[in-house]
Amino acid sequence: MKKLRLLLLSILSLLSLSAFSQTKVKDLTDSRTSNFLYPTTEVKNAITGFNEMREAMLNLEVEKAKNLSDSLVSLDPNWASAHLGQLNYYYTLKDSVKFMECYNLATSKLKGASTAEYHFILVYNPAGNLASVRCHLDTALMAASDDLQIRVYRAHFEENTKSSIDILLPAWKRFPENGSVNNALGYAYMKDEQMKKAKQHFEIYLRVYPNAPNAYDSFGDYYVKAGDKAKAKEMYLKAYELDNTWIGSKKRADEL
Questions:
Q1: Which in 147, 183, 201, 244 has the greatest CB count within 10 A?
Q2: 3-state DSSP call for residue 26?
Q3: Is 197 exposed, middle or buried (0-12, 13-18, 19+ CB in 10 A)?
């Protein structure tokens, strides 16, 4: 999960982008949309693919998220947040040209977006800084307080560990078996030296996502901190076995 933080922080260092401050935000009052980053699209059943894309993003399955994102953009060419998976993908490939093209395209569609969508997309603004990222996430969270992805992202940009835990706990209490929330809490508790709680959350993540390389990679990080190098190596190698693009896991295993 620390890779997610590095990914988002690194986005901020890309080339600056021209302003688009004239774009208006659509404030939705529908109770269905008020607590989540609900897609503002007229396409029926788009919510399924949208949630699958965001789940893939949280699990660092960037190619899967990109493929889902491509499909969503095709379904509704005017839908801004359909581009989220593409943004993650192009950053991961270090394709700054494609990233900027995608970001420009997404922000050109923000008219009519919900408050949460609008501010969540602005998190990716390469002209921003850490303070602006937090501001956009805070605003998105106020508009969509139950949204898991927004909470996970906001927690990772919080410097105070206990505050990070406080941000995540409401999501965990509402969705106690959600993989990404448990993963984020595992890292937060580990950073706070609460290793027993950290292990419990990593175990839930692994149980819910037994085929996710990130679940094993995260558990590998836990065992490194716990001093169990043999177990850490086992976890890292399992992550690499599941997806051989996870060369970072293989490298860490080889270094143990």
A1: 183
A2: coil
A3: middle
Instruction: Give the pLDDT mean for 196-203.
Output: 97
Q: In the block, which residue shows the tokens 């970001």? A: 103
Look up residue 29 and give its two tokens. Answer: 């009052």
Can you read off the two tokens belonging to residue 45?
Answer: 């059943």
What is the CA 234 to chain-centroid distance, rounded?
Answer: 26
CATH architecture of 1-157: Alpha Horseshoe (1.25)
Q: Where are the domains of the chain?
A: 1-157
For residue 148, give both structure tokens: 């898991």
Report the C-alpha gap between 204 and 207 in whole angstroms.
5
Q: Token pair for residue 22?
A: 């004239």
